[in-house]
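Run log // design_07
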């Protein structure tokens, strides 16, 4: 199973290199000129106004044409152009211009999945079949492209293209319009921003395709997870797979390639100007759901800072009724690492499935240890086992650290299985250890690492297995107890269901939100570990056009697929309604009723900062009973409550926006969660719920207060009828703690005995901070 954490590090290296090689301020660089709300509905008129602005600045039509990179003319008005710093400053001083900013780069952040989530195609009565498998819903993906020949994009049984679709398939290198069909209905690529910032990039020598075709496989994988068609009898290296499909197998897929593979660095780069143009085109084309498995780096830009192109584009997309789903990032288990935190974005954490790949290893004393691996080569019979360490007087260097195995003399490892230990959380440490052992003539490697860290498959099916430190220490003690230690490594197997438990993945980025702590992020958890889906045959780990990958990149399209099904069932819901339905109905135990743990050091019971409302429960989300709804004006009120000034808010919104003198409370933002990061004595907040179930309904409140926190709800009963479908309520929260605390967690539920509409409650007592604020 390959994980994109190592890829993200390479992308970060690329960003650093790109920044180092940028020339002086007199050299042209790509700048994004944001003009705010469109002043005309004709896209050609909008584009012409952009050219006129450049003509006035540069003095000639030819220079204006050469300077223009993109015209943003659908969701908002703006353009990307090659400008010197002085030219950019002149534009920034123009009264028509809201903001000018330099370009930047972003990173790249299925069989069992859907049965696990209760969406088995074999069940005739479930959300999957009630919605005709998402037919007529269009999911857009901004990623590395698509491999259109993959069986996951066959259009067998798929009806006509939705009438509201305005997009198409753009020809390019090894991509023609007939590569699209009734399933893959759109494919475009955006490279101008990347090329303008990387003048040394040789498109003719690049292994990536200058088209929507996917080289690295990431985009093919994510899009097939959400919307892939049925593909029968898929397995991976002999491991059990079964029938493969996406979450909404009859939804339509539209690809917007904005991420490019750079051969020299073995990394992927996504220019923010390309991403913004892709989002602009997706809004025009008519996508219903937009999925982005991309993210920036901590520290994050504020939501009103237009350098956060994803938040900016998402704001305008949501204003048009498009649900925007984003990966939460792969920097876990550290706190405050979650990305894509704007409240109008649906942010996704990654969890495991109830599936594992146990690989038995047998020691010479006949003790059997279950390791984890994806090893399907030949069983390795009893073979000499070694842990490299100094024995007696010697001047030679020995190391049992996985990253330093190359320091050992080859004879130490030749013909043997090597045990090593690593504290490195990156998966490259494991593959590097395997390469060192193989180069020295070794026959296998046992990697002892922190529990929960995933193992990358080893090239050429080299025996490569993972165990935790406790089991690694057991193996080491065995080695030291005998003159001739040996080990046998058997083939990996697939185990599904009990006793395998669900966990939040170690790598999944965690809350609290570093930009606005009162806004709970992530919103929801979904499977993102050991996800089998389509990929590009060019991918190093592709097996028959399929691959098993891990990351919040894989979890986000799971939610995008679920949202597509819900959109087919509830076409008139707002983006906030879908988020509310998903969050308030989520599983807080796994499907077997067991507690969900969060992997890390050390493992703990998962809380809202690990997985938001819980793990997505698609069936329950289709009938949530009540929703916490929001619209564009609510998001503007949030920005006012968060303390952003009128100018910053106006920049984002694209028109003059003035906050009221009476500043609203950020705690009153109508989210399906309550997060109070700095409670001193007592606070009262409000929420409003809207009935989307039976007109005549009565709900009663059930509160599980966080430890040491009092929670009182008024009224305690909500009554809905044909004339009243939205009802506000207040929540009074007070603390009994006498000292500063960490966060404690509880819940608030409205129930009518059929629906349990539950939101997480997270409260931290901060007496000392409030003391200094007041003094």
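design_07 sequence
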């Amino acid at each position: 199973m390959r994980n994109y954490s190592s890829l993200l590090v390479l992308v970060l290296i690329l960003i650093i290199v790109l920044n180092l090689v940028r020339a002086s301020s007199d050299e042209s660089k790509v700048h994004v000129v944001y003009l705010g709300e469109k002043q005309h509905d004709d896209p050609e008129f909008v584009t012409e106004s952009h050219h006129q602005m450049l003509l006035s600045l540069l003095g000639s039509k030819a220079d204006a044409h050469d300077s223009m990179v993109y015209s943003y003319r659908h969701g908002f008005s703006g353009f990307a152009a090659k400008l010197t710093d002085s030219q950019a400053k002149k534009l920034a001083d123009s009264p028509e211009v809201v903001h000018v900013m330099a370009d930047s780069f972003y990173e790249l952040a299925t069989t069992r999945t859907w049965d696990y989530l209760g969406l088995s195609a074999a069940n005739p009565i479930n959300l999957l079949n009630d919605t005709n498998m998402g037919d007529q819903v269009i999911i857009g993906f901004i990623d590395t492209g698509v491999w259109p020949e993959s069986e996951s994009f066959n259009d067998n049984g798929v009806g006509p293209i939705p009438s509201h679709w305005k997009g198409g398939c753009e020809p390019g290198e090894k991509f023609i319009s007939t590569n699209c069909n009734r399933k893959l209905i759109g494919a475009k690529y955006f490279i101008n921003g990347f090329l303008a910032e990387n003048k040394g990039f040789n498109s003719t020598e690049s292994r990536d395709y200058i088209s929507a075709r996917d080289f690295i496989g990431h985009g093919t994988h994510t899009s097939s997870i959400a919307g892939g068609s049925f593909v029968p009898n898929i397995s991976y290296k002999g491991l059990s797979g079964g029938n493969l499909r996406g979450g909404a197998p009859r939804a339509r897929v539209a690809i917007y390639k904005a991420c490019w593979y750079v051969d020299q660095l073995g990394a992927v780069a996504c220019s923010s100007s390309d991403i913004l143009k892709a989002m602009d085109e997706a809004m025009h084309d008519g996508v219903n759901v937009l999925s982005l498995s991309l993210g920036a780096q901590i520290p994050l830009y504020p939501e009103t800072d237009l350098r956060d192109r994803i938040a900016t584009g998402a704001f305008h997309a949501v204003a048009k009724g498009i649900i925007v789903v984003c990966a939460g990032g792969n920097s876990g288990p550290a706190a405050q690492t979650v990305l894509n935190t704007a409240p109008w974005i649906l942010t996704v954490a990654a969890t495991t499935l109830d599936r594992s790949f146990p690989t038995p290893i047998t020691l010479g004393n006949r003790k059997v240890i279950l390791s984890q691996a994806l090893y399907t080569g030949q069983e390795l019979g009893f073979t000499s086992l070694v842990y490299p360490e100094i024995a007696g007087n010697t001047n030679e260097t020995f190391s049992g650290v996985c990253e330093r195995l190359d320091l050992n003399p080859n004879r130490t490892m030749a013909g043997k299985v090597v045990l090593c230990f690593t504290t490195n959380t990156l998966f490259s440490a494991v593959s590097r250890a395997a390469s060192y052992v193989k180069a020295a003539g070794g026959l296998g490697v046992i990697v002892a690492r922190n529990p929960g860290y995933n193992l990358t498959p080893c090239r050429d099916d080299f025996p490569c297995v993972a165990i935790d430190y406790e089991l690694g220490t057991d193996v080491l003690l065995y080695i030291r107890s005998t003159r001739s230690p040996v080990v046998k490594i058997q083939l990996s197997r697939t185990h599904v269901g009990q006793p395998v438990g669900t966990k939040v993945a170690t790598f999944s980025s965690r809350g609290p939100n570093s930009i606005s702590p009162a806004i709970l992020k992530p919103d929801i958890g979904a499977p993102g570990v050991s996800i089998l889906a389509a990929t590009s045959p060019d991918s190093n780990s592709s097996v028959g056009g399929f691959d098993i990958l891990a990351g919040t990149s894989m979890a986000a399209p799971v939610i995008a697929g679920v949202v597509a099904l819900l959109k087919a069932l509830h076409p008139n819901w707002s983006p906030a309604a879908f988020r509310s339905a998903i969050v308030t109905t989520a599983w807080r135990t796994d499907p077997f009723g067991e507690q969900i743990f969060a992997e890390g050091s050390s493992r703990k019971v998962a809380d809202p900062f690990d997985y938001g409302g819980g793990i997505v429960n698609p069936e329950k989300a289709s009938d949530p009973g009540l929703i916490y709804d929001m619209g564009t004006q609510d998001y503007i009120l949030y920005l006012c409550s968060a303390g952003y000034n009128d100018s910053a808010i106006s920049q984002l919104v694209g028109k003059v926006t003035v906050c009221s003198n009476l500043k609203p409370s950020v705690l009153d933002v109508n989210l399906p969660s309550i997060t109070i990061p700095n409670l001193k004595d007592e606070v009262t907040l409000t929420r409003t719920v809207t009935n989307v179930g039976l007109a005549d309904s009565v709900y009663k409140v059930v509160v599980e207060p966080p430890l040491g926190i009092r929670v009182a709800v008024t009224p305690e009963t909500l009554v809905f009828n044909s004339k009243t479908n939205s009802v506000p309520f207040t929540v009074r929260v007070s603390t009994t703690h006498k000292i500063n605390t960490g966060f404690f967690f509880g819940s608030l539920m409205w129930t009518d005995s059929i629906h349990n509409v539950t939101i997480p409650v997270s409260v931290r007592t901060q007496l000392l901070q409030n003391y200094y604020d007041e003094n």
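The first helix runs from residue 5 to 21.
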